[in-house]
Amino acid sequence: MEFDFQALDRIFHPRALAVVGVSNRLNNAGVMFAEANRVLGFAGPIYAINPSGGEQVKDFPTYRTVREIPGPVDHVIISVPAKFLPEVIADCAEKGVRSAAIFTSGFSETGEDSGWELEEKIRKIARESGLRIIGPNCMGIYYPAQGLGFRSDLPQWEGQGNISFLSQSGGLAFSGIFLGQRCGLKFQKVVSYGNETDLSSHELIDYFAEDPATGIILVYIEGTRDGISLARALIRAGRKKPVIVLKGGLNEIGIRAAASHTGAMGGKRPTWEAILKQAGALQAGGLEELIETAMTVNRLPAFTGRRMIMVCMSGGVSVNYTDRTADWGFEMPELSPETTKKLRAAFDAPGTSVKNPIDMASSYINFFIYPDIFRALDEDPDCDIIMLVFTMEYYIYAERFAPGLVDTTVSAFIEALKAVRKPVVVVCPSVVEEEKRNQIQQTFLNAGFPSFLTIDRALKALSLTRQYHSKKGSPAGRDSRVP
Amino acid sequence: MEFDFQALDRIFHPRALAVVGVSNRLNNAGVMFAEANRVLGFAGPIYAINPSGGEQVKDFPTYRTVREIPGPVDHVIISVPAKFLPEVIADCAEKGVRSAAIFTSGFSETGEDSGWELEEKIRKIARESGLRIIGPNCMGIYYPAQGLGFRSDLPQWEGQGNISFLSQSGGLAFSGIFLGQRCGLKFQKVVSYGNETDLSSHELIDYFAEDPATGIILVYIEGTRDGISLARALIRAGRKKPVIVLKGGLNEIGIRAAASHTGAMGGKRPTWEAILKQAGALQAGGLEELIETAMTVNRLPAFTGRRMIMVCMSGGVSVNYTDRTADWGFEMPELSPETTKKLRAAFDAPGTSVKNPIDMASSYINFFIYPDIFRALDEDPDCDIIMLVFTMEYYIYAERFAPGLVDTTVSAFIEALKAVRKPVVVVCPSVVEEEKRNQIQQTFLNAGFPSFLTIDRALKALSLTRQYHSKKGSPAGRDSRVP
């Protein structure tokens, strides 16, 4: 099938929606979809289709079938048992619906012949009519700028996000959106596409690659029925934008798990890795890595160097963290006499160290020196990346004498770091008072600084981000630091 | 020096304490130590030594020097500038003090000749008098059963803990204690020993190996001045108890960082790894791993098998997690017809899967089936380990219709899991509502089930625990599941 940007773009801009399988039953999935689009602000009509009687559902205009709706309907969300699907899809085709997202599961992912046959049947109807099917076994579209979504608690904001996410799994689409929200990612378009019976991953990747509003493409994929086209689409997209991929089903048992999840036919690990490498795509090992790498690519200025300077408040952590940086391919250069001199001018108490890693020790409490420290590192020609390790052990104790100290210090760090032009990341490792720790990390995130729970997660995201910039000349896909 | 258990044991059982360097200045470190021992419930007298005038500090009996104290003093904590140390140590020796923990830094870790000389001077006084020195550049002893500690917010509880921890870093001693508290670890004795000028890591390891109250030995070490003795002590201890080691300074830059932290002379990575292997010690890669492995060794029944069955509520996560298990050397066997049948009898809704990983999907909401599910896995002869992956995405939505659902479900899982005899671990990955997630993880931890934020952390801890049981016949060091 020839790729047609406009045709796909129309799927994301329906005039009216219908949800098939809506009832007044508590926790009815159809109502969840109908309400989600209303809460997210979809501007056109939202029709409810209640096939079991047409009884009015909440205040949605309710009908028994899609055909009975008086006006035009461009996009339909379907949540009825699998056996009713051929009839509903035929209705949609007859009505002239452009696209249908099918939530219903029980198709090819069951591994049973009946599931495959049912899926083949609806594909045939779609192909003959021009109706595009998303799914089945998926959550469909989240496009906050148009008020489209699959759950009413999905994030909303003013203006448009720049991250688009294509997820074969509905659960990972959710989780990715929520994790992304914590990390300050604003999503442009998310598509959970499930069993890929018609609308395929390669079409969506081509679409996101062309889409001017998409800056970074995230992909969770378990497998596809057209590996060649997928590979080509990834390579095309990789020429234009950062593409970050989480592959589900990398080994025999993972592939088996994927097959029973979305009916996907997964390829072998080396094949995938070769394709991703050729595409210049970054391979994440898990959902956290996918989202945190997007955050890091999005927030940091371009860098290709490996030389890191680490600012710590606890010697023990700094030694272990220094080991980890080397394990991940980064370098911790010895500081030049000039930088050492500048740092010693800023702080000189016993127990502090102005070697790399820098140990502020008890001097952490003097936030007047923060600008001097980070300016010295920003000016150091042998420093590519600055890492702040924010450990709370001593703060918590000192707060007894100075309530509010932690928040003041975090604000002072953020003010000092805002003046830095080099890439800065923050690690907030867990200790005691997990809620406070989480709040501190969130404050750094909200200020636009990539922040991580563990050193390994920070280093993995930095490593992938560096890999991206080392391959490409231009730092496409970057948003600004301050959200 | 011959190892003398009784002599070392006396250090942990002083009749009276003195803290040198106490003043009425806000945030004075000496007061922190004095108050810590009082709050933790030390039964004997706690004297304050205020060398700059002898002015009374709070309600502690205050003197100008240790020599002026009327009664006996067995253990002294020292927090005065480095240059005063020889005099203070000479006073202690004259007074007949058994042991001194020196908080002061500015010795060999500075890398300067004056620091080395000062340290040599106090070592000489100590060796001549029989006074044992812990440190300098350390936090000293935390032994809650005797009310000894270095900060008043250190955890306390009824009865004795079974984990002892030897940390060259004071910061990591803190962090390890606090992290351990979250993980439900109860510490027996913790020693932050810093520059190791006198009392050495190998003596402490020998002591913990003999100590009947110590079930598991944790070690954070950067380097030592007597590598042969340390290696021998580790090997001796490894024959008796689980020993889990975090080595700080594994490569050139890490070793450099360690040298400026505790003045430690670190060996090369292959040497360390060979010693740890010979000792049967488990090597943790970071503090979280050290603590989480201790938790897992402590809580789980012995196991040597690799076959895991995973229970999930979200298909996307389950596929990725299945990949990860294989990466860490575990197996996810296909379920037997018998187990499959039992599971299908428990739940059969569309979207669920009774293959391994088991995807409860929408059936998660029916907590009446949990006992049936876990009983089936417990009875399955092809299952060595059970992993529950607790994802919250759907719960959060369903709570709108059923407030309290999440807590009810967590309790129901815990009740069902309590009947399981096989090793069980729980993964609570982060999504939205981090505070709620953290609280859920804490509830599983409090119920005695090793619980983790990420699959990789769970698999690493399981992998090390399995390594321990595969080497040793007996599951020494195990506490009970329910705390």
Explain what this protein looks like in three dimensions.
The structure is a homodimer of 483-residue chains. Chain A is an alpha/beta fold. Helix content of chain A is 42%, strand content 14%. In chain A, helix 3 (85-95) packs parallel to helix 4, helix 7 runs parallel beside helix 9 (269-279) and helix 13 packs parallel to helix 15 (405-418). Chain A is elongated. The first copy, chain A, starts with a helix and ends in a 12-residue tail after the last helix. In chain A, 58% of the residues are buried. Chains A and B meet through helix 5, helix 8, helix 11, helix 14 and helix 16 of A and helix 5, helix 8, helix 11, helix 14 and helix 16 of B.
Tag the structure with descriptive keywords.
Rossmann fold, homodimer, 3 domains, 6-stranded mixed beta sheet, 483 residues, 6-stranded parallel beta sheet, alpha/beta
Helix count of chain A, per DSSP? 17
Largest sheet of chain A: 6 strands, parallel
What's the assembly state of these chains? homodimer
Superfamily (CATH H level) name of the largest domain in chain A: Succinyl-CoA synthetase domains
Q: Classify the fold: give the CATH topology of the largest domain in chain A.
A: Rossmann fold
Count of distinct strands of chain A: 17
Return the CATH class of the largest domain in chain A: Alpha Beta
Strand % of chain A is 5-15%
Task: List low-pLDDT spans of chain A.
Answer: 479-483
Cα gyration radius of chain A (Å): 25 Å
